[in-house]
Amino acid sequence: MTHSAATEPAPVRTKAYPAPDDAIEPRSEDGRRVSEADYWAEYYHAADICYEWNNGRLEEKPVSSWDTIAVYKWLMGLLEHFLRVHPIADWVVLDMGFRLALAEKTVIRRPDLGVVRRDNPEPLRSGMASYPGVFDLCIEALSDLRQRDIRRDTVTKHGEYAGGGVPEYYILSHRDEHQAFYSLDASGLYVPLPATDGIIRSRVLPGFQFRQRDLCAQPDWDSLRADPVYAGFVLPGWTAAEQRAELATVRAETEAAARRQAEAELARLRAQIADSKQ
To answer: Per-residue pLDDT tens for 29-55?
Structure first.
């Protein structure tokens, strides 16, 4: 039996996609000398590679591992909870850059997260694509695939942020030995924030605190509501609602018990009156 062409199934056409190994990587211009004006005009908004600018040279910003990104996301979520309850600052992500005119050089850095207090002389405003002031807190998710990347955050940016007057600087990592939390002292040098009982307490954001070990453990928000370290700013509305519900339940149970006791007493009195009439 033969089939006509009209009844033959149409051939399935598939589009060939290159394998990941065949993907064309954008050409990095790391180390290229460019003027500051050219950096802002041509490289700051580059879509493929995130560049910073170090005194006349482009620096490609390295990426972090997934484990360190998870630490960063958890702390970012905690900060969001805190600022929702205590709106004393605003924050930016997506590598918003700011300029640091240091004694020996000028750099443009793009922290993974930058915090600006609302009393900062340069508040964040709608329409900003770069920040004209100095962040109150810079957070970097450490890139630890190469030693030079580790040095970049732990030594180079450590010195630049201190020299530029950034009041606090956090380095996040999934490795405990690479985590660091600094605050400027009176002489303009970074000193570690004290970890009393393992708890880091911000000086820039009074009331913002976290257990250092929780950065890697990343407990869920619901479990933090009853934790005294976090109870003041993690989902306090939920906790208050639960407390109101519990109080209403206790009140209803107390009222029901009192009503049952009154009814029992009334029944006893009626029985006593009935006995006296016999």
So the answer is: 999 999 999 999 999 998 789 999 999
Token pair for 189: 């040098």
CB 149 within 8 A of CB 124: no
Cα-Cα-Cα-Cα torsion 75, 80, 83, 84, nearest 10 degrees, comes to -150
CB 87 within 8 A of CB 95: no
The span from the CA of 117 to the CA of 62, in Å, is 28
Q: b/e for 253-270, b at 16 or more Cβ within 10 A? A: eeeeeeeeeeeeeeeeee
Left, alpha or beta for 218 (phi > 0: left; psi -120 to 50: alpha)? left
Write down the mean pLDDT value for the chain.
Answer: 84
Paired tokens of 15: 């589009």
pTM over cut 0.85: no
Distance, CA of 118 to CA of 174 (rounded, Å): 31
Tokens 């750099």: give the residue: 107
